[in-house]
Amino acid sequence: MSGERQTPNRGADALYPGGPRFFDAPGVFRVSTDSVLLADFASAGNALRILDLGCGGGTLMILLAERAPSAKLDGVEINPEAASLCRRNIAENGLEARCRVIEGDLRDASALPSAGGYDLVVSNPPYFASGSGRQSPDDRRAAARSEDSCSLSELCAAARRLTRWGGLFALVHRPERMSEVLCAMSAAGLEPKRLRMVQHQAHKAPSLFLAEGRRGGKPGLEILPPLLLADEAGRDSEEIDRIYHRR
Hints:
The protein is α/β, with parallel strands linked by helices. The protein has helices at about 35-40, 60-65, 80-90, 140-145, 150-160, 180-185, 240-245, and strands at about 15, 20, 50-55, 70-75, 100-105, 120-125, 165-175, 190-200, 205-215, 220-225, 225-230. Helix 1 packs parallel to helix 2 and helix 5 packs across helix 6.
């Protein structure tokens, strides 16, 4: 749902040479670093069923399909324009046999797949609580940026319902809301198990965090080393080069 500002419609761009290709569309957030980092962080290696809640244009789905070549992937999206773009990006990358888009509201259980069907659920949700943050005059952008149409508790409840017992839920969010996010996950029965801060450089404050919880998991949170986006000289870090397949 969250991401960088959209540019006008143009041809599909490759995320990296030989990598997945993505179209843009008006009113839909484009490919963002947030989603790329989450796709790398989530424990997708052994997953056979993956679901993206609020899949937008399909960035997470398509990157996870690359990481988990045996998996079937679904995405839930309430915005018709975003759902259409997601289908187009799925087709552009030849993933129609493995990926599908479910157009609907993740708060409506009747619009979602059957309960407990997924090994991994992911989400790049709206970062701002309802009534806070800069509000976009575009209703579609406002819905993607703030929780007016989906709160943290509603997101976690949907993730809990759809994740199998022992399955995982991973998301990316802003550090000032970390306490809210982890509490909402725990309250929904998705016990936080892994946490990683994202920093531009080692001396900078975190700008994002990545979290993963397990349905029915026991308490015990692993704090991973921070993910640094740049080195001391301001160049992309070795890890960012790895994530973007530059080395």
